[in-house]
Amino acid sequence: MEETLAAVLYEVGQPLSIEPVEVLPPQRGEVRVRLHAAGVCHSDLHVMKGDQPMKMPIILGHEGAGVVEEIGEGVTSVEPGDHVIPIWRMSCGRCEYCLGGRPALCDVGTKMRFTGLMPDGQTRFRNAAGESILHYAGVSTFSQVSTMPEGAVVKIPADFSLEHAALIGCGVITGLGAVFNAADVPVGGTVAVFGCGGIGLNIVQGAKIAGASRIVAVDTVPRKLDYARQLGATHLVNAREGDPVEAVKDLTGGLGVDFAFEAVGLPEPIEQAYDATRKGGTCVVVGIARPDARAKINVNALVYAEKTLKGSIYGSTRPRIDLLRLIDLYRDGRLMLDELLTKTYPLTEINEAYAALERGEVARSLILPQASS
Questions:
Q1: The pTM of the whole model exceeds 0.85
Q2: Which domains are seen in the chain, by residue range?
């Protein structure tokens, strides 16, 4: 076993506990990764606040990047020293969804996400009392070192920044994937993005890369709207200053947009995004909501206006292919990553990082687990 520092959640509504934990060595088909960067994302906050129920104690963190330290028996795709991005929706590569090009829907990854267990039904973390600690999404990146399945890591070029790699591991790939895969926004299309947090901002820049002619960013926080403008939004709508649906329609000649995206995970902005979609348009819901959340949709508009309403998880991507393509986009100067990163924190300041996220002070921030306080 190896002792390392991790942020452990013991109870909903309580701060993460920064404490030493033991990391068990990788078993067959597993790898041990030393994390150098981990993303501060709302998905983890949903668990901390109880919006997404999970058993505890658990080490959160689902996006990040690091270096492989050790591999278990049978591992062939990576070796010690390789730089990797963890995949928070591990895929088996054999089921109907994986073979059909929709690995984010793989049942193996889904089970790990909701049980907090490795595929063998066990955990690889122990606290000082000897209690098992659960894994979040199979990767638990809020630990300096984490053991995870081989199928949950993607090898990346060693000369690519690990901080940039952590950014693309969830927020960027989810946002751009929603644009390119779930919606397939064409050149000249019109777009509205409801919610300009980490995912929404990447939907904005995805729409810009796709060549959208009009990109309307909608949020209630002026600072987030400023970030959206930097990343490609052509128009800004503060939802606190009137009806955002009417504002979007006013900007599109009364028609609504070809594509509306919701990246908040609340019923009201989902309804607004749908209502802001024009006849024949597509509304894509990307935000993660409470399990009991319900949105009211005008069914007549769905039928008579031939709208499309769909969801997208992990950008409907194939991470093993698409993550490497995002690296190429950045190197070609088309994907903005430096502009996304507002601040970094050592692991010991992770609770401060989440407080800043809730206040809307950052576009995207990272935990640097190896950094000293």
A1: yes
A2: 2-159+340-368 (3.90.180.10), 175-313 (3.40.50.720)
